[in-house]
């Protein structure tokens, strides 16, 4: 068994995948956690300023301003996650070969892939939206057909239908999570990356990818909750008092506090989840395509170059 970097070059176990993601963060914190703080800060600052601008629009109701602020924060957070995921995938790819990627090298390698990563996100969103439209139409049709059998039949159709659609979304969405890794590591376009992700998760291995991805999501949700619960309590306490006797300062401070929580959580969560995604992608290529041979040759060539 050869292990030039963070994982052994063989089909990976769950411990190899999670351990490899954590090792990448521990061995190269500047290019993982540090990059997370940097990228998220760069995009969350304009997000905060845009949120403040929304709060100043007096013609909007308070509820509408709250919704717009949430949408602005979500948009910038998604953009930051896309860019950061691409960079972390590259860092993990280098760590597998035993190399440490610096921040500058990572940015130069990934910056040209960011449009493709955004395109991948847009395409996946459109595909899932199309599934949602089809599901709604199916609900309407089935509900109409079941209405002749009584209210109980309608309720059963709705309940079973909602569960089925949720499972379909999870199944399809998780299978497509490998697309960013293909876009970065294979340097392919958005549609080709989606096709690669889908083909790599066919059959029984697809369920394995889904299970590991959901387990990683549970772990990150536990960490996120551990950070957000105390922060949320602080927000409520802050919202119940007059800040420096000036209520106009409360909303900006609440929004700023929320962005700060996003920064801290995202800087740790996104590198871990991106690392798991990258290693799942490599694991599937090792299992299906024998990629370990090419990885070993590349690692040996780099080791020889370092010695010379």
From TrEMBL:
Keywords: Membrane, Transmembrane, Transmembrane helix
Domain (DUF7847) ranges: 14-281
Matches recorded under InterPro entries: DUF7847
Transmembrane parts of this sequence: 33-55, 67-93, 114-146, 152-185, 206-239, 259-282
Cell wall biogenesis/degradation listed as a keyword: no
Domain of life: Bacteria
Membrane keyword on record: yes
Pfam entry (one): DUF7847
PANTHER family tied to this protein: EXPRESSED PROTEIN-RELATED (PTHR33133:SF1), OS08G0107100 PROTEIN-RELATED (PTHR33133)
Protein name: DUF7847 domain-containing protein
